[in-house]
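Thread: assembly with ligand

MN 10:42: here's the input set. Chains plus the small molecule as SMILES. Want everything predicted jointly, not piecewise.
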Amino acid sequence: MPRPAHGSPAGQPGPRRDPRPSPAVTARTTAAATLLLNATYEPLCVVSSRRAIVLVLADKAVSVHSAAEEVHAETLSLPVPVVVRLTRYVRVPYPAQVPLSRRAVFHRDASTCVYCGGSATSIDHVVPRSRGGTHTWDNVVAACRRCNHTKADRSLAELGWKLPHPPRTPSGAAWRLLGARAVDPRWREWLGMPESVSA
Ligand SMILES: [Zn+2]
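BT 11:07: finished. Tokens for the full assembly:
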């Protein structure tokens, strides 16, 4: 007796396996980050190592500093790029200021309370917001819970407290590019940062 010719003997008509090969670049490094320099060696931004490899393979960038480990592409192997430089100069408008965030303030103030030097657990508005203080880099500092609580809505003059130095807006290549993000030690020399300073 004729039967409709559908279904497989195994009885598992699930979705077909896609026979396409794995992506062109396969490595554990897809989550790693690479510092991208302009043609002038000026730091531009941080890209995924995968993106950096694509730029190098397309001759749009050259590797300046590579890791010991290699990444395997379809037809070749190459060292994982840590720092790459664009072969052509690009003009990039930079954001005027580093975005203000709790994490960035902690980073600027080294997670230290500006009033007592203890371990910071909160951010404080030097001029309280209730008194018209702004949420800007020059009015926000890292503070410990005790100082924050003691200070409450009072001004520094009322408390007789002083800041060790006025809160500053962070600047420089590292801040512009990375904000509060961790710096790969191998990027330091390209960011104009001393080798020994910890992030
Ligand atoms: Zn404190």
